Amino acid sequence: MKHYELLFILKPTLTEDEAKVKVDFIKEVITKNGGEIASVVEMGTRKLAYKIDKYERGTYVVIYFTAPTALIAELVRNVRITEEVIRFLTVKYENKREIAAWEKLSKGQKLVGAKKETRSAEKPSDLEE
Q1: Which of 6, 11, 15, 25 is the most exposed place for a label (fewest CB within 10 A)?
Q2: pTM for the complete prediction?
Q3: pLDDT digit string (tens) for 67-91?
Q4: Banded pLDDT at 101 (limits 50, 70, 90)
Q5: Which residues lie in Basic and acidic residues bias regions (predicted)?
Q6: Which of these CATH numbers, 3.30.70.60, 3.40.50.150, 3.40.640.10, 3.40.50.970, describes 2-107?
């Protein structure tokens, strides 16, 4: 079983109940085809970076799940024919480092960024000898 993340944006015109029905439909597609859902993160309605199909806002949902590879084609097919989904993205986590990140994200933990090299700006007074 591979580790995946599905992010999709629903139309902002949906009521909370309608949005919940669409999320449940997508969860059902995953579970019926042999996938296991680790977590569902509903991020709420946010402003989009640019207009999509005349919408300036969208309701973001992220689903973390494990599934056989064959499930993805069926999942993508179902998401594409769902008119209420205006955009979606499926991400596959492959190596150990990515899977560790997936496990943290699916539990709602934030990722700690890699150590960044910080350079302090040299002041002109520091350059004088």
Answers
A1: 15
A2: 0.81
A3: 999 999 999 999 999 999 999 999 9
A4: confident
A5: 114-129
A6: 3.30.70.60
